[in-house]
Amino acid sequence: MQIDKRLHIPFYRQVEKILEEKIISGQWEVGSQLPTEQELSDLFDVSTITVKRAVIELVNKGYLFRQRGKGTFVSGAAKEQDLNSIISLSTNSDHEHPHEILSFKYETAGSEIAQKLRIDPDDEVIKIERLKIENNDPVALEYTYLPADRCPSLTPADINNDLIFNLLKNKYHISLGRAKVFIRPYILPIHQSRLLQIEQGTAVFEWERITYTKQEDIIEYSKFYIRDDKEVYYTEVQL
After folding, report:
1. Looking at the predicted structure, is the pLDDT value of residue 233 above 50?
2. What is the pLDDT of residues 45-84, one digit of tens each?
Protein backbone atom coordinates (compact mmCIF):
# COMPACT_ATOMS: atom_id res chain seq x y z
CA MET A 1 0.00 0.00 0.00
CA GLN A 2 1.66 3.15 -1.27
CA ILE A 3 0.79 6.82 -1.45
CA ASP A 4 2.34 9.35 -3.79
CA LYS A 5 4.03 12.01 -1.70
CA ARG A 6 4.63 14.13 -4.80
CA LEU A 7 0.91 14.78 -5.23
CA HIS A 8 -0.70 17.94 -3.86
CA ILE A 9 -3.26 15.79 -2.07
CA PRO A 10 -3.14 15.51 1.73
CA PHE A 11 -1.59 12.25 2.85
CA TYR A 12 -4.60 11.34 4.98
CA ARG A 13 -6.87 11.72 1.93
CA GLN A 14 -4.69 9.33 -0.05
CA VAL A 15 -4.69 6.81 2.80
CA GLU A 16 -8.46 7.21 3.15
CA LYS A 17 -9.01 6.56 -0.57
CA ILE A 18 -6.86 3.41 -0.59
CA LEU A 19 -8.59 1.97 2.48
CA GLU A 20 -12.02 2.87 1.08
CA GLU A 21 -11.26 1.10 -2.20
CA LYS A 22 -10.22 -2.05 -0.31
CA ILE A 23 -13.53 -2.03 1.56
CA ILE A 24 -15.71 -1.33 -1.49
CA SER A 25 -13.93 -3.94 -3.60
CA GLY A 26 -14.43 -6.58 -0.89
CA GLN A 27 -10.73 -7.14 -0.24
CA TRP A 28 -11.58 -6.41 3.39
CA GLU A 29 -14.81 -8.23 4.23
CA VAL A 30 -17.54 -7.00 6.53
CA GLY A 31 -16.56 -7.64 10.13
CA SER A 32 -12.85 -8.00 9.39
CA GLN A 33 -10.44 -6.13 11.63
CA LEU A 34 -8.10 -3.51 10.25
CA PRO A 35 -4.38 -3.54 11.03
CA THR A 36 -3.48 -1.30 13.96
CA GLU A 37 -2.81 2.38 13.34
CA GLN A 38 0.88 1.75 13.93
CA GLU A 39 0.89 -1.09 11.41
CA LEU A 40 -0.89 1.08 8.82
CA SER A 41 1.52 3.89 9.59
CA ASP A 42 4.45 1.60 8.78
CA LEU A 43 2.78 0.28 5.61
CA PHE A 44 2.06 3.76 4.23
CA ASP A 45 5.21 5.35 5.64
CA VAL A 46 3.22 8.15 7.25
CA SER A 47 2.58 9.27 10.81
CA THR A 48 0.00 7.58 13.05
CA ILE A 49 -1.78 10.97 13.21
CA THR A 50 -2.27 10.79 9.43
CA VAL A 51 -3.64 7.25 9.68
CA LYS A 52 -5.93 8.17 12.57
CA ARG A 53 -7.44 11.04 10.58
CA ALA A 54 -8.05 8.79 7.57
CA VAL A 55 -9.71 6.16 9.78
CA ILE A 56 -11.93 8.76 11.46
CA GLU A 57 -13.11 9.96 8.04
CA LEU A 58 -14.07 6.40 7.10
CA VAL A 59 -15.83 5.90 10.43
CA ASN A 60 -17.83 9.08 9.75
CA LYS A 61 -18.74 7.74 6.29
CA GLY A 62 -19.95 4.48 7.83
CA TYR A 63 -17.33 2.20 6.26
CA LEU A 64 -15.63 1.43 9.59
CA PHE A 65 -16.59 1.22 13.23
CA ARG A 66 -14.42 1.17 16.32
CA GLN A 67 -14.90 -1.03 19.39
CA ARG A 68 -13.37 0.11 22.62
CA GLY A 69 -10.38 -2.03 23.56
CA LYS A 70 -10.74 -4.23 20.48
CA GLY A 71 -9.85 -2.19 17.41
CA THR A 72 -11.35 -0.97 14.13
CA PHE A 73 -13.60 -3.14 11.94
CA VAL A 74 -15.26 -3.02 8.53
CA SER A 75 -18.94 -2.10 8.76
CA GLY A 76 -21.77 -3.85 7.02
CA ALA A 77 -24.16 -1.86 4.92
CA ALA A 78 -26.10 0.53 7.14
CA LYS A 79 -29.79 -0.28 7.38
CA GLU A 80 -31.99 2.20 5.54
CA GLN A 81 -34.82 3.62 7.65
CA ASP A 82 -37.63 5.68 6.21
CA LEU A 83 -37.75 8.75 8.42
CA ASN A 84 -41.41 9.38 7.61
CA SER A 85 -42.51 5.87 8.60
CA ILE A 86 -40.69 6.12 11.93
CA ILE A 87 -42.17 9.48 12.81
CA SER A 88 -45.65 8.44 11.65
CA LEU A 89 -45.53 5.48 14.07
CA SER A 90 -45.85 2.81 11.37
CA THR A 91 -45.50 -0.46 13.30
CA ASN A 92 -47.76 -2.78 11.32
CA SER A 93 -45.45 -5.79 11.39
CA ASP A 94 -45.59 -9.26 12.85
CA HIS A 95 -41.82 -9.37 13.21
CA GLU A 96 -40.22 -9.37 16.62
CA HIS A 97 -38.18 -6.37 17.69
CA PRO A 98 -35.32 -7.83 19.76
CA HIS A 99 -34.40 -5.83 22.84
CA GLU A 100 -32.38 -6.49 25.96
CA ILE A 101 -33.96 -4.97 29.07
CA LEU A 102 -31.28 -3.32 31.21
CA SER A 103 -33.54 -1.75 33.84
CA PHE A 104 -37.26 -1.67 34.61
CA LYS A 105 -38.54 0.19 37.65
CA TYR A 106 -41.27 2.37 39.10
CA GLU A 107 -40.06 5.70 40.48
CA THR A 108 -41.11 9.27 41.25
CA ALA A 109 -41.12 11.42 38.13
CA GLY A 110 -39.04 14.33 39.40
CA SER A 111 -39.18 17.81 37.92
CA GLU A 112 -37.55 17.14 34.51
CA ILE A 113 -39.58 14.07 33.52
CA ALA A 114 -42.76 15.55 35.03
CA GLN A 115 -42.37 18.55 32.75
CA LYS A 116 -41.92 16.31 29.70
CA LEU A 117 -44.99 14.20 30.55
CA ARG A 118 -47.08 17.10 31.90
CA ILE A 119 -47.61 15.43 35.27
CA ASP A 120 -46.76 16.33 38.87
CA PRO A 121 -43.18 15.73 40.05
CA ASP A 122 -44.49 13.39 42.77
CA ASP A 123 -46.43 11.23 40.32
CA GLU A 124 -45.13 7.73 39.64
CA VAL A 125 -43.60 6.78 36.29
CA ILE A 126 -42.26 3.58 34.79
CA LYS A 127 -38.66 3.96 33.65
CA ILE A 128 -37.42 1.45 31.08
CA GLU A 129 -33.84 1.16 29.85
CA ARG A 130 -33.28 -1.19 26.90
CA LEU A 131 -30.82 -2.06 24.19
CA LYS A 132 -32.17 -2.59 20.69
CA ILE A 133 -30.45 -5.61 19.14
CA GLU A 134 -29.96 -6.41 15.45
CA ASN A 135 -27.88 -9.36 14.23
CA ASN A 136 -26.65 -9.84 17.79
CA ASP A 137 -25.23 -6.30 17.86
CA PRO A 138 -26.51 -3.43 20.03
CA VAL A 139 -27.67 -0.64 17.71
CA ALA A 140 -29.58 1.69 20.02
CA LEU A 141 -29.87 2.53 23.70
CA GLU A 142 -33.40 3.47 24.80
CA TYR A 143 -34.70 5.31 27.86
CA THR A 144 -38.49 5.40 28.08
CA TYR A 145 -40.80 6.98 30.66
CA LEU A 146 -44.48 6.12 30.91
CA PRO A 147 -47.10 7.50 33.37
CA ALA A 148 -47.67 4.61 35.77
CA ASP A 149 -51.40 5.33 36.15
CA ARG A 150 -51.91 4.92 32.39
CA CYS A 151 -50.07 1.58 32.25
CA PRO A 152 -51.29 -0.41 35.28
CA SER A 153 -49.58 -3.70 36.16
CA LEU A 154 -46.95 -3.31 33.45
CA THR A 155 -44.15 -5.88 33.74
CA PRO A 156 -40.87 -6.45 31.88
CA ALA A 157 -42.45 -9.45 30.14
CA ASP A 158 -45.00 -7.13 28.50
CA ILE A 159 -42.29 -5.29 26.57
CA ASN A 160 -40.07 -8.25 25.76
CA ASN A 161 -39.05 -7.96 22.09
CA ASP A 162 -41.78 -5.48 21.27
CA LEU A 163 -42.16 -1.77 20.59
CA ILE A 164 -43.59 0.65 23.14
CA PHE A 165 -46.14 1.83 20.57
CA ASN A 166 -47.47 -1.71 20.17
CA LEU A 167 -47.71 -2.08 23.94
CA LEU A 168 -49.72 1.12 24.31
CA LYS A 169 -52.09 0.22 21.48
CA ASN A 170 -52.54 -3.51 22.01
CA LYS A 171 -52.39 -3.94 25.80
CA TYR A 172 -53.81 -0.63 27.00
CA HIS A 173 -55.92 0.23 23.93
CA ILE A 174 -54.63 3.80 23.85
CA SER A 175 -55.37 5.70 20.64
CA LEU A 176 -52.11 7.31 19.59
CA GLY A 177 -52.36 10.64 17.84
CA ARG A 178 -48.93 12.02 16.99
CA ALA A 179 -45.30 12.09 18.03
CA LYS A 180 -42.87 14.97 18.10
CA VAL A 181 -39.27 13.94 17.45
CA PHE A 182 -36.06 15.91 17.87
CA ILE A 183 -32.86 14.57 16.26
CA ARG A 184 -29.41 15.84 17.13
CA PRO A 185 -25.80 14.62 17.30
CA TYR A 186 -24.62 13.47 20.71
CA ILE A 187 -21.25 12.42 22.14
CA LEU A 188 -21.62 9.34 24.33
CA PRO A 189 -19.98 9.19 27.76
CA ILE A 190 -18.06 6.07 28.76
CA HIS A 191 -20.93 4.10 30.36
CA GLN A 192 -23.23 4.40 27.34
CA SER A 193 -20.34 3.78 24.94
CA ARG A 194 -19.66 0.45 26.61
CA LEU A 195 -23.30 -0.57 26.32
CA LEU A 196 -23.30 0.17 22.58
CA GLN A 197 -19.83 -1.37 22.18
CA ILE A 198 -18.28 1.71 20.63
CA GLU A 199 -15.37 3.91 21.64
CA GLN A 200 -15.87 6.62 24.26
CA GLY A 201 -16.43 9.98 22.59
CA THR A 202 -18.07 8.51 19.50
CA ALA A 203 -20.86 10.63 18.00
CA VAL A 204 -24.30 9.01 17.72
CA PHE A 205 -27.81 10.14 16.86
CA GLU A 206 -29.88 11.30 19.82
CA TRP A 207 -33.61 10.96 19.22
CA GLU A 208 -35.92 12.63 21.73
CA ARG A 209 -39.56 11.62 21.30
CA ILE A 210 -42.79 12.80 22.90
CA THR A 211 -45.90 10.80 22.03
CA TYR A 212 -49.44 12.17 22.29
CA THR A 213 -52.80 10.43 22.39
CA LYS A 214 -55.60 11.55 20.09
CA GLN A 215 -56.89 13.53 23.07
CA GLU A 216 -53.50 15.36 23.13
CA ASP A 217 -52.39 13.83 26.43
CA ILE A 218 -48.69 12.94 26.57
CA ILE A 219 -48.42 9.18 27.00
CA GLU A 220 -44.70 8.55 26.46
CA TYR A 221 -41.35 10.32 26.64
CA SER A 222 -38.23 8.62 25.31
CA LYS A 223 -34.61 9.23 24.42
CA PHE A 224 -32.75 6.98 22.00
CA TYR A 225 -29.02 6.90 21.32
CA ILE A 226 -28.46 5.26 17.93
CA ARG A 227 -25.17 4.15 16.41
CA ASP A 228 -24.53 6.07 13.21
CA ASP A 229 -22.77 3.10 11.59
CA LYS A 230 -25.93 0.98 11.76
CA GLU A 231 -28.68 3.28 10.53
CA VAL A 232 -29.09 5.57 7.52
CA TYR A 233 -32.20 7.74 7.49
CA TYR A 234 -33.88 8.95 4.32
CA THR A 235 -37.04 10.70 3.25
CA GLU A 236 -38.81 11.03 -0.10
CA VAL A 237 -40.65 14.16 -1.19
CA GLN A 238 -43.29 14.24 -3.92
CA LEU A 239 -42.49 17.04 -6.37
Report:
1. yes
2. 999 999 999 998 888 777 888 877 788 988 865 666 666 6
Q: Is 74 helix (H, G, I), strand (E, B) or coil?
A: strand
What residue ranges define each of the domains in the chain, with the CATH number in brackets?
11-74 (1.10.10.10), 79-234 (3.40.1410.10)
Residue 6 has pLDDT above 80, yes or no: yes
Sign of CA dihedral 138, 56, 206, 81: negative
Q: CA–CA separation, 98 vs 135, rounded Å?
A: 9
pLDDT for the residue numbered 90: 46
Going by C-beta distance under 8 Å and a sequence separation of 6 or more, which residues neighbour residue 29? 74
CB 46 within 8 A of CB 11: yes
Distance CA 87, CA 209 (A): 9
User: Which residues 6+ apart lie within 8 Å of 63 measured at CB?
Assistant: 19, 20, 23, 74, 75
For 123, which DSSP code?
S
pTM score > 0.85 for this model?
no
Separation of first and last alpha carbons in the chain: 46
Q: Is the pLDDT of residue 170 over 80?
A: yes
- The size of the chain, in residues, is 239
Question: Amino acid identity, residue 41?
Answer: S
- Within a 10 A sphere around the Cβ of 21, how many other Cβ atoms? 11
